[in-house]
Amino acid sequence: MKNWIWLSMLAIALTGCAGKTDYRNSCATQLDAAWQEQSLAEAEGFAGTVSYSKALALLTGAKTQQQFEAFRGCTEKAKKARFYLRESRAGR
């Protein structure tokens, strides 16, 4: 009986750990793409400095979330950052 309780607790703990990695690849991919887009936007020059500033703040937050393994939030912030980088290149 004690073994079943122990195994149940172990299974629950491992399930919780596995759930943290759901967005790991997406986070990394979105962050890499956003940083590349940021470099292009900076090199091209543009009028949309407000959008650019928003994007940089979101990228910083996404990187922080990646470090703390909050991959879902990282992915969402990186996607928003990419949107603002597109807006900044359009001069908005």
TrEMBL record:
Name by which UniProt lists this protein: Lipoprotein
